[in-house]
């Protein structure tokens, strides 16, 4: 393993993947139904952004990273367990 | 231990072949047949030697138990929502199955959950095939049970 395998990832890609991992980890700490809901919302959001955003649009990606980190911090709080719908709102800003 | 005996078997097979190669070589020299015949002999030799080398290496990389590989295959299938008729071998590359880096993260998270291990960030990004995932899992599970 190591050098021969795996795609070469840029720093910003690694940051995004790391954030995604963190989100999935936090989702795991929530219970049953919420867990699955958070996971599907987060997954949809990341995949949507990965398809829609130009990979060279660093400024926007960095903004999303910062926003994601803040949302992650909020989600980490044990009080947020039942408030996964909060994430729905933030992942679909057009509706609000 | 198994690797050693396999290597020994490979060595003996190549030795016996070398001895059989010699007369044929001498034959070409004495009878003066064209070099094309000689070429054929050499090709036969490499061909004979290669599979044994390959199986040897296969043994080493296949250290992961078949159950593990099967479990990994199942999880990959589930995560990527693959149709049942899509073939999934240990050598299949995730990218060839239509997975991007986000999907790979999901697969690794799914594997962590299933095997109750934690994969480091660095190594998780290096996983590209089922076999690599299975090998890494075996290593981590071993480390966990030893600790």
UniProtKB/TrEMBL annotation, chain A:
Keywords: Chaperone, Mitochondrion. The keyword NAD does not apply. It comes from the Eukaryota. The keyword Mitochondrion applies. Residues 14-74 form the Complex 1 LYR protein domain. One of its GO terms (biological process) is mitochondrial respiratory chain complex II assembly. InterPro entries: Complex1_LYR_dom (IPR008011), Complex1_LYR_SDHAF1_LYRM8 (IPR045295). GO terms for cellular component: mitochondrial matrix. Pfam families: Complex1_LYR (PF05347). It is found in: Mitochondrion matrix. Belongs to the complex I LYR family. SDHAF1 subfamily. This is Complex 1 LYR protein domain-containing protein. It comes from Acer yangbiense.
UniProtKB/TrEMBL annotation, chain B:
One of its GO terms (molecular function) is acyl carrier activity. Signal peptide: none annotated. Carrier of the growing fatty acid chain in fatty acid biosynthesis. Residues 66-141 form the Carrier domain. Pfam families: PP-binding. This is Acyl carrier protein. One of its GO terms (cellular component) is chloroplast. NCBIfam families: acyl_carrier (TIGR00517). HAMAP family: Acyl_carrier. It is found in: Plastid, Chloroplast.
